[in-house]
């Protein structure tokens, strides 16, 4: 299938599985509800989607999703692989997305459909933008090596004017943090216009860099329409900024692509709204295809949640999401197309070890909100405690032993209760 791309689906139907799989392939390629004159055999051969495999997984008595379709006595779940010729879509990511996650999701005879993965030929991948900075570029801009980037987010997440935001950044920069980001809810409100926020924040960051040699990476949320994305990006770049952030699901693939074509900065991708696409077991999609299509579009950092159990997602799912970002999309191309996973959500010193042990990589951005800002000795000690925790974990030293000569880590261990086994499973 070198000239074809494929998608793997988990489906459920009360009808014949093979018949429904064939209907799905037709719905997303050549079929119409009634034969039309130009629907020739030659056209079928050239553009038809193929059902490559069907694996029956099990049965249930009730449908997972509702439909106007008649009730069936039993519903079968199956994993199917469908492929398409690449000439159906050219090198268009929006059309790839429409093909693999389009009208088939609303098929009447399906009581469940979930996109699990996509497989693309290297010829297609090579024509996409992909990350311009990725892991190596992000490390170069922040001057970090041998450990994750330690990051924080502006708190409170909304309501601060530019001057107040800059003061929060000043404290974080002086604390030794590597990375700071806007909240996904903060972009360009009238009380905190982004151009003014950029000016105030970058003045603090640039002065700190001149004084210490360390330049904090700040991800400004520039989410907006295509013109706003470009204009706001330019304001960040002209002020000496080193990162821009977008809300992937609100900006859309076309917006991300337009930004990537224009950008001279790393693109930080926030997945706000992701749970609506994945939380139901027989609907939506897994994170693997989601992160892949956004890496193809050129995103350098992608949020994967965190092991602090702030949100609904299981540890297994979060770890799998991070590993997906760190896996090359193809082994046949020299360009490093990995994205840096952003581990964020209830993170403190206690999540450093399970994050490192289970993801198995230092190439991530470890973002802490309260885990830094609420440290009893202040934010500077909060940052120090997180750095100490990661140093201890990477060196395979028990945190309490490592904390004996490190006051910030010791105070954090007393302040943050260790999660119960049931809470961290």
Number of domains: 2
**CATH top-level class of the largest domain:** Alpha Beta
Task: Return Rg in Å.
Answer: 24 Å
Helix content: 40-55%
Unreliable stretches, pLDDT < 50, 5 or more residues? 421-425
Q: Helical stretch count?
A: 18
Remind me, CATH topology of the largest domain?
Answer: TIM Barrel
Mean pLDDT, to the nearest integer, reads 94
Broad shape = globular
Calculate the terminal CA-CA distance, rounded to whole Å.
40 Å
Task: Give the topology, please.
Blueprint: E1 4-13, H1 17-27, H2 41-47, E2 50-60, E3 75-85, H3 93-100, E4 110-119, H4 122-125, H5 134-142, E5 149-153, H6 162-175, E6 179-181, H7 194-212, E7 217-221, H8 226-238, E8 244-247, H9 248-262, E9 267-270, H10 275-278, E10 283-285, H11 287-297, E11 301-305, H12 315-325, E12 340-344, H13 352-359, E13 365-367, H14 370-373, H15 379-394, H16 399-402, H17 407-415, H18 421-424
Helix pairs in contact: 6-7, 6-15, 8-9, 11-12, 15-17
Description:
The protein has 425 residues and is α/β, with parallel strands linked by helices. It has two domains: 4-125, RuBisCO large subunit, N-terminal domain (Alpha-Beta Plaits, 2-Layer Sandwich), CATH 3.30.70; 134-424, Ribulose bisphosphate carboxylase, large subunit, C-terminal domain (TIM Barrel, Alpha-Beta Barrel), CATH 3.20.20.110. The protein contains 18 helices and 13 strands. It has helices spanning 17-27, 41-47, 93-100, 122-125, 134-142, 162-175, 194-212, 226-238, 248-262, 275-278, 287-297, 315-325, 352-359, 370-373, 379-394, 399-402, 407-415, 421-424, and strands at residues 4-13, 50-60, 75-85, 110-119, 149-153, 179-181, 217-221, 244-247, 267-270, 283-285, 301-305, 340-344, 365-367. The strands form two sheets. An eight-stranded parallel β-barrel has the order 5-6-7-8-9-11-12-13, surrounded by five helices. A five-stranded mixed sheet has the order 2-3-1-4-10. The two termini are 40 Å apart. Residues 421-425 have low confidence and may be disordered.
């Amino acid at each position: 299938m070198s000239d074809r791309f494929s998608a793997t689906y988990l489906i459920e139907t009360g009808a014949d599985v093979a018949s429904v799989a064939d209907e799905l392939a037709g719905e997303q390629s050549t079929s119409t509800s009634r034969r039309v004159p130009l629907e020739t055999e030659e056209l079928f051969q050239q553009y038809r989607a193929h059902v490559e495999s069907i694996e029956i997984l099990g049965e249930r008595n009730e449908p997972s999703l509702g439909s106007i379709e008649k009730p069936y006595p039993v519903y079968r779940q199956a994993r199917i692989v469908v492929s398409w010729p690449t000439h159906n879509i050219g090198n268009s990511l929006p059309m790839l997305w429409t093909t693999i996650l389009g009208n088939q999701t609303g098929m009447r005879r399906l009581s469940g459909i979930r996109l699990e993965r996509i497989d693309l030929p290297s010829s297609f991948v090579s024509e996409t933008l992909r990350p311009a900075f990725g892991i190596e570029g992000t490390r170069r801009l922040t001057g970090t090596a041998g450990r994750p980037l330690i990051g924080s987010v502006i708190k409170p997440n909304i309501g601060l004017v530019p001057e107040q935001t800059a003061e929060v950044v000043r404290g974080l920069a002086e604390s030794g943090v590597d990375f700071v980001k806007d909240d996904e809810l903060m972009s360009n409100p009238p009380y905190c216009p982004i151009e003014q926020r950029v000016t105030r924040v970058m003045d603090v960051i640039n002065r700190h860099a001149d004084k210490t040699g360390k330049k904090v990476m700040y991800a400004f949320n520039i989410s907006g329409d295509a013109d706003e994305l470009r204009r706001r990006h330019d304001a960040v770049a002209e002020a000496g900024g080193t990162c821009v952030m977008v809300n992937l699901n609100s900006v859309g693939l076309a917006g991300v692509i337009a930004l990537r074509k224009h950008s001279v900065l790393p693109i930080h991708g926030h997945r706000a709204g992701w749970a609506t696409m994945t939380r139901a077991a027989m609907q939506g999609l897994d994170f693997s295809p989601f992160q892949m299509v956004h890496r193809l579009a050129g995103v350098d950092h992608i949020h994967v949640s965190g092991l602090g159990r702030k949100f609904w997602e299981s540890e297994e799912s979060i770890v799998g999401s991070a590993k997906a970002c760190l896996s090359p999309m193809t082994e046949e191309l020299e360009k490093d197309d990995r994205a840096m996973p952003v581990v964020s959500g209830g993170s403190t010193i206690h999540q450093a070890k399970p994050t490192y042990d289970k993801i198995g990589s230092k190439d991530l951005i470890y973002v802490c909100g309260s885990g830094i800002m609420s440290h009893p000795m202040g934010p500077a000690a909060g940052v120090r405690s997180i750095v100490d925790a990661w140093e201890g974990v990477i060196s395979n030293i028990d945190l309490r032993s490592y904390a004996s000569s490190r006051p910030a880590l010791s105070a954090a261990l007393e302040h943050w209760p260790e999660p119960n086994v049931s809470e961290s499973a």
